[in-house]
Amino acid sequence: MKLIRFLNMTFTGLLAYTLWACDTIKEEDRLIYVQPAEVNRSVLIEDFTGQRCVNCPTATEEIEKLQSQYGEDNVIAVAIHGGYFGIYTSTSAVTALSTEEAREYYDKWNIDSQPAGVVNRRSGVTNYTAWAAAIHNELQKQTPVSINLNTTFDNTNNTLQVKTSILSTQKLNCKLQLWLTEDGVKALQLMPDGSPNLEYIHHNVYRKSVNGLWGTEIALSESQVEATFATTIDSKWQIANMHVVAFVYNQEGVLQVTKQKIINKKT
């Protein structure tokens, strides 16, 4: 009880600003039914969120609804914690989910309010009320790119190996980006009523990039392009709950995205 009182005192001073700065949408304007699309591709949504953003849990619920509608393999979300409402330093009471890499992504997209998101890097930063329509439109499109992943984790040295295989029906100069995400992370989250929830379960949490902040340049053609990458895993992360998210993008946006659960090599 003392911890709860402490957290309430800590965040009360920020709550007035938080309620002002986070986007608040009326219920009748938020719930928009979109006719399901025939899936031709997968769609990436970069969810710019924060543990001190009171409206971010509502945006998370919107993502869950869209994944339920279209499938988690078709709507692939990455929760990038950062910005003003992010927590960057862990304490004995609070686990921080923001990272310096996340801060750079926030700066890249000039995120000035939360929740906010980018769908397939096509139409810039949008409020979560626009995600349903944007995802529906993206799922209608064909893509020339397919991505296959094979992941292996060696727990003797906490090393992850990711083998990628990419095929395109067109000649394209692109970048391949590999990210690590984690589900089931219990950490503080401010709720829509302003109360701190220490038992909140975060999913799709961005942990790190495997191949640099902006990925690896690749030249695609009708022949298969293969590449292997390796990285270390923080011992605090639960490997059983982690995925590799891989996407190919160029100046036009994300061409294809996929995710693969990490396989733990038993020793």
Q: Give the amount of beta strand, in percent.
A: 35-45%
C-alpha termini separation: 43 Å
Structural class: alpha+beta
**Main beta sheet:** 5 strands, antiparallel
Question: What's the quick description here?
Answer:
The chain has 267 residues and is of the alpha+beta class. It is built from five helices and 17 strands.
Provide the descriptors you would attach to this structure in a database record:
267 residues, alpha+beta, 5-stranded antiparallel beta sheet, 4-stranded mixed beta sheet, 5 helices, 36% strand, globular, disordered N terminus
Question: How would you summarize the topology of this molecule?
Answer:
Elements (H helix, E strand, L loop, with lengths): L1 H20 L5 H4 L12 E7 L6 H15 L4 E7 L18 H10 L6 E4 L5 E2 L4 H9 L5 E10 L4 E10 L3 E11 L2 E2 L2 E2 L5 E2 L3 E2 L2 E5 L6 E5 L4 E8 L9 E9 L2 E9 L2 E2 L2
